[in-house]
Amino acid sequence: MFAVPLTEDAQLRPLEPWQAVEFLAHMDRAREYVDPWVPFAGLSTDLESARAVLQRHADRRAADTGGIYGIWRDGVLVGGTLFVSLDAHSGTCEVGCWLERSAEGHGLVTRAIRHMIDWAFHERGLHRVQWVNAAHNVRSAAVAQRLGMHLDGVLRSAFPYRGQRHDNQVWSVLADEWPKKPTAAGAISPEDVRVPAERDPAEPTPA
């Protein structure tokens, strides 16, 4: 199975149903921190429900409509990314992410999402990649900005959480706005990519 290096000690690779035990342990550590931003955090409360969450995403990957991937640092699952949706016919997709507080400050999310966008544009030939975050989630908005995304607008009162409704920001980047795939002679290694430092760890985790 593939593994994409993000840093010297971190990798991005598929997150499968057979890894439910590891995923649940990760959710137990991260749930309180990521629950406001990632819906499946509150849905993965025991082994059965954690496996069901991963199976739903595995089914979506098999159907070519989504997919979920884990970020491992020093061999420990600390976060992940996902294709929230993928529509090859219309040429669009939405990407998302989550991360434990302990793994912040290393540029892992930005690197991982950059790889996903590269794949969406260069391998799948999609036209538009979308990113949606709660309007008050400043860390998530910062990732979109670092990736060169455009703020399309705000969906007012878009989702409920703990008795209150919240706004969503919608960001996007188009294929002709994204860097071209380097040729073999000009290929860039992961070590050559410079990712700006993360924002204050006290701010919320990206959704």
From TrEMBL:
<protein>
    <submittedName>
        <fullName>Protein N-acetyltransferase, RimJ/RimL family</fullName>
    </submittedName>
</protein>
<dbReference type="GO" id="GO:1990189">
    <property type="term" value="F:protein N-terminal-serine acetyltransferase activity"/>
</dbReference>
<keyword id="KW-0808">Transferase</keyword>
<feature type="domain" description="N-acetyltransferase">
    <location>
        <begin position="10"/>
        <end position="176"/>
    </location>
</feature>
<dbReference type="Pfam" id="PF13302">
    <property type="entry name" value="Acetyltransf_3"/>
</dbReference>
<dbReference type="InterPro" id="IPR016181">
    <property type="entry name" value="Acyl_CoA_acyltransferase"/>
</dbReference>
<dbReference type="InterPro" id="IPR000182">
    <property type="entry name" value="GNAT_dom"/>
</dbReference>
<dbReference type="GO" id="GO:0005737">
    <property type="term" value="C:cytoplasm"/>
</dbReference>
<feature type="compositionally biased region" description="Basic and acidic residues">
    <location>
        <begin position="191"/>
        <end position="207"/>
    </location>
</feature>
<dbReference type="InterPro" id="IPR051908">
    <property type="entry name" value="Ribosomal_N-acetyltransferase"/>
</dbReference>
<dbReference type="GO" id="GO:0008999">
    <property type="term" value="F:protein-N-terminal-alanine acetyltransferase activity"/>
</dbReference>
<feature type="region of interest" description="Disordered">
    <location>
        <begin position="182"/>
        <end position="207"/>
    </location>
</feature>
